[in-house]
Fold:
Amino acid sequence: MPKRIAVVTGANRGIGLEICRQLAEAGLCVVMTSRDEDKGKAAKDSLVGPHSDLHYRQLDVTSDDSVAALGTYLNTQFGGIDVLVNNAGVLFDDDRVDASVLCVSLERFRVTMEANFYGPLRMCQALSPLLRKSKSGRIVNISSGLGQLENMVDGHPAYGVSKTSLNALTRLTSDALKDANVLVNAMCPGLVATDMGGPKGRPVEEGADTAIWLALLPDDGPTGGFFRNREPIPW
Ligand code: NAP
Structure:
């Protein structure tokens, strides 16, 4: 059986790097991407082991050209892909200046939406033709509890709205790809000890676990859902 091909954004550090490690360990061929080529290649080299089938491509999810070039590379190199993990994300909200929706700058909103929402949207649009070629395609969107409408309170407004938007993209994409056996889900990793999450978070191994579970779902698995710790959570 041919190896399944996975593509991960923001793979040079944090949760993205750990997702690549666990997918490679599960036997997938993993295309690691990052906006900084040196950091991405160093991250790939840090993972090389006896079972790893790792590739590297530079990718800035905020660039139409960069995403299109990745699509061309994947089509030429592999002919299709099986798993897309939209992990790359930014959290710019400054607790002092941008804590409230009533004073956050519109520019802060724009740059956050560009990476956290338009980035995954670009990736889904560019790579869905390649996912359609898979017998069992999967998209995993790395979202956040801060995007949940149910308990939403003021604070981190740009980040929160960008993740709510990513959740909506999850629902729309799930429906758009339901005829192609591509399962599309969002997950919240919890507070994870990365540059973004800070030292009090849980280990990346735990933060990545639900994303790996969603990437490896069987064909009768869920689609259009939002999960934390492998359990559904409210939108
Ligand atoms: P991180 O350590 O800050 O890593 C973020 C990654 O995204 C980096 O590789 C970064 O690349 C990349 N990135 C940012 N903008 C990009 C762009 N335009 N193009 C390509 N890559 C870009 O954060 P993390 O904690 O691992 O977060 C990973 C995901 O989990 C994010 O979507 C985040 O919102 C989500 N999340 C994290 C937590 C947490 O507690 N850590 C909680 C909930 C959700 P550079 O190195 O070049 O900056």
